[in-house]
Amino acid sequence: MDILWFKNLSNLAKTGNFTHAAELNHISQSAFSRRIKALETWVGTPLVDRSSYPVVLTEAGKQMLEAGEQALARIDAERSLIQESLAQPDKYIVTFAAQHSIGWRYYPAWMQAFEEAFGPIISRLRADDLPNCLTDLKRGEVDFAISYESRHIPGVGAEFESIVIGRDRLIPVSKVNSEGEALFHIDETTATPIPYLRFGPSAPIGLHVEPIMMAHNLGNRLTTVYENSMGGALRIRARDGLGIAWLPQSLVQPDMEAGLLTWAGAEKWAIDVEIHLHRNKRNQNLLTRKIWTFLTLREGVPLV
Known about the structure:
The chain is of the alpha/beta class. It folds into 3 domains: about 5-65, Orthogonal Bundle (Arc Repressor Mutant, subunit A), CATH 1.10.10.10; about 75-165 and about 275-300, D-Maltodextrin-Binding Protein, domain 2; about 170-275, D-Maltodextrin-Binding Protein, domain 2 (3-Layer(aba) Sandwich). The chain contains 10 helices and 11 strands. Strands 3, 4, 5, 6, 7, 8, 9, 10 and 11 form a 9-stranded mixed sheet that branches. Helix 1 (about 5-15) crosses helix 2 and helix 1 (about 5-15) crosses helix 3 (about 30-45).
């Protein structure tokens, strides 16, 4: 996948015309069309509704364009930070690693609130599966790791110090039908299996859901139709109406407010989770120690 394909998709969204978008990218229309098709193949679903004129992005296309633009903005920001740090070696870049679902919406809001309270810092984020985040923290490749924890899942281990920086809920969501109700609903009594969009085995966030499924024997009612370690990918499939997914409320709240997703069951199916920040005890950097002390004093009073 070429990240510059997202610039092609952006120009297509702006112009609504393959020919004009190709001209903006200084390539032929056939080459431009191949790039859009290649991106659709990589995502696994159509991103452009070619039946309308001017053409428009599908919901999946809008979602991926948002993600692509965020990624491009982050790359540009990282480049600026690296250049600044090279010019001013005394400015330390604080590196955070977070589970994908945290990095998508919670982390940007939390970082903004943190800097307003603590003061500006130079920082960057690595969004990855939790095991990789913790490995990077152990190796000293990142300063902090951020994860979900609940009563169902034990902590990350005694080798790390941990504090609570926020709270969220995993809630079952489904696409809204034409009557404004959930397309799939856990509490409806039906013999038809309910399609389930689940986190893959490399994403421990799914482990928070398994106990409630086992306690209520939901495994016999839900049939897995798609797996992915990224909450954003499950969110796209849920918005496409492919099934039910348990997702962080902070991630799907904008979709719920827009009427694209809704609760797929009663409140009892919500799973309370805490958002924990972890540090390696061996990290003796002065700035990261100051950040840790500041957040430790605020523990129990989340920034967002």
